[in-house]
Amino acid sequence: MIRKLKALKILPLKHISPSQYYSALNCPYKLVLANTFKYESLLPINANAHFGSIAHKMIELISRGIVVNEESFSECWNDLINKKENELRQKGLGSITPLKYFVSDFALKKNQLRHFLERRKNKIAKHEQKTTNTYFPEVKLTNLDHSIYGIADLIIKNGSSVVILDFKTGKVHIESIDENGGSEKLIKKEYELQLKLYAYLYFLMHNVFPTSLFLITLDNNFIEVPFTQEDCENVYKEAVSFLSSTNSIIEKQEFELIAKPSKENCQYCSYRPACNYYSNWLTKNFEHVNDLGGLLKKVNCFNNNSLGLQMQIGNHEVLINGLTGSLKQGFENLIDKKITLYNLRKSKNAINATANIFTITYA
């Protein structure tokens, strides 16, 4: 697929969500571009990411007591899978369906969700008395002017107790070295900031802080996020300040102050086709990521109806194979023009590359 971008009209940020905040700290320009494109990704999202939203929803349904046995599990599972696959086909991403063939460890992850349900059932069975918990799924939390707002996955109330929970389908810890040189697990900073912001937003809306904050994992682990009211207030004030300073930079169009191109910040960013700072960084660092940008010099046609491109990147001549023959005319019209191909497959320490179903070209 070959795409072209229209001229950018950078818009001010109206708000920021707790789940965006940490990523935005690492590269504020990423959030600026996301906002400009109304959070519509410029690149295909891989099957694992799409599956993550399904797993996330299943955890919510189990936690709320909607999925309670194998019958309801299968019904909700099939419904979510079918809806997601139909959505992908409508977006032109039918090539990654059925999801079971493209999601890593699909069967294992499905079984993990089944185990999550079983542990939930066993936990309930241990309590003879009926629970007095009240469940509030997908609760919108916001400040007065809606400049900071997000949606908490689940809030559980029981009397004066208020628990905010967020579901995570991936790793929630990072390994760190303690002061004695030993290894310790720390909750990822982005999740800590997210829940502390939820806590302060809840306080602004209800004039009381939640009793506790928890992350829930696929293993049915409830991981508490410690907090103080002062912590939450400080994180909130920093987020408000970040929003204000970023909008000031947008107004002055001093984007070089907030663009932070690097492998860590850019390799999974969905907005890198629109980022000139990434494009400039890529010309000198293309060996470290799966994108290539340069002058298209020649289009080679092969007998298997595939194409090979010869590109000039600085002093390097680079070959890209595996593109579909239906793009022949489009690429020939771009000879001697700068193009960038995203989401290629490269061998380690190699500069040549092969296209795949996620590869997209921007001219």
From TrEMBL:
InterPro entries: PDDEXK-like_dom_sf (IPR011604), PDDEXK_AddAB-type (IPR038726), Restrct_endonuc-II-like (IPR011335). Residues 15-276 form the PD-(D/E)XK endonuclease-like domain. It comes from the Bacteria. It holds the Pfam family PDDEXK_1. This is PD-(D/E)XK endonuclease-like domain-containing protein. It comes from Niastella yeongjuensis.
